[in-house]
Amino acid sequence: MRADARRNRDAIVAAAYELFAEQGTEAQMDEIARRAALGVGTLYRHFPAKEDLLDAVIARRFERLAERAGQAAQQAGDGEPWEAFKGYIEWAAEMQAGDRALSEAMATRSERMHAAAVGSGLVDALEQLVEHAKSAGAVRDDLVVEDIPALVCSIGAVAAAAIQKPGWRWDRVIAIWLDGVRAPGLSELPGP
């Protein structure tokens, strides 16, 4: 891709990143082009449909999640397993709750979310983080990496509902979930 085309594409994704976070998937393509300071035709040459643009934004978000999960796995391996695990979960939940489109996508596009998570390296980084935390006795032995997307999707659902029902608390869901995964656990979990 030529340098100017790459700059235009990056400007479109950056504008969409902001607008989707603010307005959700209802953000309009012409408004995204305007925020990127480009014509609508340029936007459609790069992204023929809104879903294509949403996929690019989701991929960028998952890259951030994977990078942060890798840092948390390193921190957990360096002797701070619970702090690393808890810190990552809280950071990811806050990111999720502050992003309307990501919350909507988590609740309605699970296959796309899974593909983005695998493609970004997030799943591998989370497996390392969970294993470090388990090895140190910080989280319950029956926690599996697949439990984390379930939590994130529930946060997405609560965050999306909070838009319509102010007062719903995603941070409360996180606190309850974190207490539930902390070792040793009070009861055996059903199978994953």
Can you characterise this structure?
This protein has helices at about 5-25, 30-35, 40-45, 50-75, 80-95, 100-110, 110-120, 120-135, 145-165, 170-180. With about 190 residues, it is mainly alpha-helical. It folds into two domains: about 1-50, Homeodomain-like (Arc Repressor Mutant, subunit A, Orthogonal Bundle), CATH 1.10.10; about 55-180, Tetracycline Repressor, domain 2 (Orthogonal Bundle), CATH 1.10.357. Helix 1 packs across helix 4, helix 4 (about 50-75) packs across helix 7 and helix 5 (about 80-95) packs antiparallel against helix 10 (about 170-180). The mean pLDDT is about 85.
Q: What CATH first level of the largest domain would be assigned? A: Mainly Alpha
Overall geometry: elongated
Assigned CATH architecture of the largest domain: Orthogonal Bundle
Task: Supply Rg.
Answer: 18 Å
**Estimated share of beta-strand residues:** under 5%
Question: What count of domains describes the coordinates?
Answer: 2
Number of helices: 10
Kindly, what is the distance between the CA atoms of the first and last residues, rounded to a whole number of angstroms?
43 Å
The CATH topology assignment of the largest domain is Tetracycline Repressor, domain 2
Uncertain ranges: none
Biggest beta-sheet profile: none
Helix content: over 70%
Number of strands: 0
Q: What is the average per-residue confidence, as pLDDT, rounded to a whole number? A: 87
Order of helices and strands: HHHHHHHHHH
Secondary structure class reads mainly alpha
Q: Would you summarize the structure shown here?
A:
The chain is mainly α and 192 residues long. It folds into two domains: 1-48, Orthogonal Bundle (Arc Repressor Mutant, subunit A); 54-181, Tetracycline Repressor, domain 2 (Orthogonal Bundle), CATH 1.10.357.
